[in-house]
């Protein structure tokens, strides 16, 4: 029920601007239904007139007055009504397709824009595939429902009511006969559809599990190959595939049963209607011509009568998928957004520095990660943050750029709390080089100029040179115009980071955060990264998360973090002389290096 409320609110939000067009569709649909249910009346009339004409024509006494004109009139009216039915159906289907593609386009933009306003927490707690499926399966389901199901629901319901009214207008007894089998039809349709739905749900679940397995195996392909586990991987895939196959077969079997079953019931109904109609002519003293016409009318109605029942039950599934999709999308729209203070202070240039004052923070309420961390970064200084894995280094970085808000304490730029700073001006002055560098689809040049699209070619090349990646780019067949994306990259991990450093250099940030990624690269690239980092750091206030201690020997201050607490602070020499945790860490690393 809550799902339906969410879905209604969501649809109302996006469809209300089309109320005029939607009202027009409703009116045209009702008109179309009227033409559709009225046409058989003229068909019956044509038969009655034809029958009257034939009996007059074949009777010598009335032969002279026999006229085909009334028959032709009825035929004309029937053709007009059929044509009007087709024309109005086309108009309403055209307009509703237009509305649904416009509305789903707006929904797509709304969702994309919402994601851009979302907090990092949302992306940290949701998988890429899950987010992507909002755009693919959920929006597709909503579009299908708007395009077909909602229009169908309206037109089929109107048709159902229209046929019943017309049948009672034409002949009450035959109307009751035609409708007598309705409960059987509804029960049969409902039974078949609910069985089909059950297996279609199972099929979706099983497909989800199978995809999860495929995803995991593809991600772990290198390990599978190195361990020679390909056969085991195939063998384990078998049961997943088998379950999908079984559920697909059963789902398709039941949904495939619906139409033949309803067709059978409709034919049975037809036979009953014809039988009872002829009984009325013989036993109820009905005029033969009128009776024949009436039988034709009811043959038509009884054929049409089952159509809404079949259609409405079969689109139920489509509607349910759309309701679930709308609920999932409205959940996304209800998620918290990044809080940008109204008339927040603008950061112009960093004047004194950045401070972290007694920071407490946890990603969840039940677990605190940082317990009172204080760090002072003076303008122009390079501060290095070191510590064992899981000690909270990345977490500190997340707070510096206001990806998350602290629970207690404050992060200040020039003495101003980041929560009072205009977010854009904060981010404009902070440059980040992440451990994992991302390439966007486009050329190498597009990637370097990503944060500064108006930079000149010279500025771009200068940034690439400072980042030690220019020479490599020049070896590519199309140089800076080489096409890349994250999947199809000509760059190694280390080179990607160099490119990312070039991108940051070009934005010329006041304050730099570097999450060092030297752990997985060869020594030549490591040296290049080191030189590039030295270039980007020069003359800037910077904060480096270091994994390799030899990269931070020249830091103005090294802060050692352990279990979310600062345990040591000082220059390299001071810390080594202290003989504490850092000193031990340093000597251990030197042994391995
Ligand atoms: N998005 C998150 N949600 C919940 N907990 C998180 C999240 N990110 C990190 N943590 C937890 O916070 C703690 C500190 O993690 P953090 O990534 O800051 O450590 P780190 O010092 O950067 O580690 P590493 O050197 O391995 O990168 C860890 O216990 C981790 O499990």
UniProtKB/TrEMBL annotation:
Q: Name one GO molecular function term.
A: ATP binding
> Could you tell me which residue ranges the ABC transmembrane type-1 domain spans?
24-321
User: Superkingdom of the source?
Assistant: Bacteria
Name where it's found: Cell membrane
Keywords for the protein's UniProt record, in alphabetical order? ATP-binding, Membrane, Nucleotide-binding, Transmembrane, Transmembrane helix, Transport
Q: How does it sit in the membrane?
A: Multi-pass membrane protein
Example GO CC term: the record gives: plasma membrane
Which InterPro entries does the UniProt entry name for this protein? AAA+_ATPase (IPR003593), ABC1_TM_dom (IPR011527), ABC1_TM_sf (IPR036640), ABC_transporter-like_ATP-bd (IPR003439), P-loop_NTPase (IPR027417), Type_1_exporter (IPR039421)
Cell inner membrane keyword on record: no
Q: Which PROSITE patterns match?
A: ABC_TM1F, ABC_TRANSPORTER_2
Transmembrane helix as UniProt keyword? yes
Q: What is its main location?
A: membrane
- Domain (ABC transporter): give its ranges: 354-588
Q: Per the UniProt record, which residue ranges are transmembrane?
A: 18-37, 77-99, 149-168, 174-193, 258-282
The name under which this protein is listed is: ABC transporter ATP-binding protein
